[in-house]
Fold this sequence. Notes:
Structural class: alpha/beta
Number of domains: 3
Order of helices and strands: HHHEHEEHEHEEHEHEEHHEEE
Number of helices: 10
Strand content: 15-25%
CATH topology of the largest domain: Rossmann fold
CATH architecture of the largest domain: 3-Layer(aba) Sandwich
Shape: globular
Amino acid sequence: MPANLTPEYRVAEEKFKKAQTLEEKISALEEMLAKIPKHKGTEKLQADLKAKLSKLRKQATSGGGGPSRRTETYHIPKEGAGRISIVGVANTGKSTLFTVLTGVSSQVADYPFTTRTPVVGMMTFEDIKIQVIDLPAVSEQFMLNWVPQIIRLSDLILLVFDISSLDPIAQLNEPLHILKERKIELIPEYRELKEEEIGSHQSVAKIRTLVVSGFMDVDGSEEIFELLKEEAHVDFEIIPLSSITGKGVEELKRKLFRGLRINRVYSKEPGKKPSPEPFVLKKGSSVEDFAGKIHKDFVEKLEFARVWRKGEDKDGIRVSKDFILQDGDIVELHI
């Protein structure tokens, strides 16, 4: 029986071939197992993938099994519509922001380097959930060796600094310099990347980043913020945020969603209401991509689709499979 491997599986397989680290290989294998068609023709391939994954996970937890000193590592399965990692030097309010976004408690203290392991939560944005990771400090004083790898595997970075600190500009610049030395370049969220520039397998990982100025509740913080924007000499948009009053949180969530470059698309069967739960696609995806998300056979059998878009024809418009979808579109496939 033929395997009939899907294009999505082939993409994951290519990621595995290009993977250079254990974390990247494990992530790619998990994606391959999730995307592989489940039928008799793929049973042996599924078993082989599971065996490889088991072997790599053992290596990750044992530090490779060699004579050298054990290297601690963390594997965090991707969940939700995207992955956002919170980055910054010590005591900038990262953990407080994480709790505000996710509702999950992360250890907070007045002394530095409180967070020593990754803390994972899910942020709700309207009708989807997005994975958020609170990471230990990225600092010249101390940085755990596995932190850069999790940053590499993130879809978006939230860089946090404390507006009330003695030198907020240094807090902002320090993680940028440290990560650049480790071949990770944090770039402004508004910058567009070519497809070949995206991915943790690149020699220099370029990751879109939003910058947040925390502790905006401190007296005089607004004046300091305006001065900082003039003096920082960075290309990033700096977002003011109050974790205490919640001012700016909803706007930040919208900007995080935008930064992930994803669309929510809703399926609809003829004569029925649209599904309340969306499919999440990359920006620029077509009706054909959407059909493949629902079922691999739909791609070949698809004749046309009808799309409802906010503010347009209430009866929907008939489109071909190469029609590019937008966030909020409702799609009815005709096979």
